[in-house]
C-alpha cells in the first residue's frame, strides 16, 4: 500500500508531466510562429532589394497627385473657414451695436422716467400745499345741500377725506 508521501509524489509527477507537455506545445507553437515571421521578413527584404534595383516612378507620381489634391482641399477649407469667420465677426459687430443702441435707449428712457417722476412729485406737493381746504362741517353742508336727503356721509367721513387730501398722498 502506497504511503501518503508516495501518493503526493505520484500526483506531482502527473502534474509535472502535464505541465511539461503544455510547455512543449507552447514552445512548438512559438517556434512555428518564429519560422513564419522569418519567412515573411525574408520576403519583405527581397521586395525592398528589388525596389532598390528597379525603382518605379508610378507610385511617386501618385503621391504627387495625392499631395496636390490634399493641398487644394486644404486651400478650399481655409477659404471656407475665413468666410465663416468674417460672417461671424459681422454678426458679432451687429449684435454689439444693437446692444449698445438698446442700452443707450434704455438709459435715456430711465432718465426721462426719473424726470417725469420728480416733476409729478413736485406738482403733487405744490398742489396740496397751495390748497386751502375748507372746514369739514362746511363740506358736509354743501354735500347735503347738493345731494339732498340722500346723503349718508357723516362729519367723520368728511374729516377723513380732508386729512387724506392734506396728507402727502402716500396713504
Estimate the helix proportion, in percent. Answer: over 70%
Tell me the Rg in angstroms: 54 Å
Any low-confidence stretches, pLDDT <50, length ≥5?
A: none
Number of helices: 4
Care to count the β-strands? 0
The fraction of residues in strands falls at under 5%
Rounded mean pLDDT score: 79
Series of secondary-structure elements, N-terminal to C-terminal: HHHH
Q: Indicate the overall shape.
A: elongated
The span between the termini is 119 Å
Structural class: mainly alpha
What characterizes the major β-sheet? Answer: none
Report on this model:
The protein is mainly α. 87% of the residues lie in helices and 0% in strands. The protein has 4 helices and no strands. Helix 3 (136-147) packs across helix 4. The protein is elongated, with a radius of gyration of 54 Å. The model has no long low-confidence stretch (mean pLDDT 79).
Give me a quick take on this structure:
By secondary structure, the chain is mostly helical. The chain has helices at residues 4-53, 57-130, 136-147, 155-166. α3 crosses α4.
How is the topology of this model organized?
Elements (H helix, E strand, L loop, with lengths): L3 H50 L3 H74 L5 H12 L7 H12 L5
Helix pairs in contact: 3-4
Which terms summarize this structure?
about 170 residues; mainly alpha; 4 helices; elongated
Amino acid at each position: 500500500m502506497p504511503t501518503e508521501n508516495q501518493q503526493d509524489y505520484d500526483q506531482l509527477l502527473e502534474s509535472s508531466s502535464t505541465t511539461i507537455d503544455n510547455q512543449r506545445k507552447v514552445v512548438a507553437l512559438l517556434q512555428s510562429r518564429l519560422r513564419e515571421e522569418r519567412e515573411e521578413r525574408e520576403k519583405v527584404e527581397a521586395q525592398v532589394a528589388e525596389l532598390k534595383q528597379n525603382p518605379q516612378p508610378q507610385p511617386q507620381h501618385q503621391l504627387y497627385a495625392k499631395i496636390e489634391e490634399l493641398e487644394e482641399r486644404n486651400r478650399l477649407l481655409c477659404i471656407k473657414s475665413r468666410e465663416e469667420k468674417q460672417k461671424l465677426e459681422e454678426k458679432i459687430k451687429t449684435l454689439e451695436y444693437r446692444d449698445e443702441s438698446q442700452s443707450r435707449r434704455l438709459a435715456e428712457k430711465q432718465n426721462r422716467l426719473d424726470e417725469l417722476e420728480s416733476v409729478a412729485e413736485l406738482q403733487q406737493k405744490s398742489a396740496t400745499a397751495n390748497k386751502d381746504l375748507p372746514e369739514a362741517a362746511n363740506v358736509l353742508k354743501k354735500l347735503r345741500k347738493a345731494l339732498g336727503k340722500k346723503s349718508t356721509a357723516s362729519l367723520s367721513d368728511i374729516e377723513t377725506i380732508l386729512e387724506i387730501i392734506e396728507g402727502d398722498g402716500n396713504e
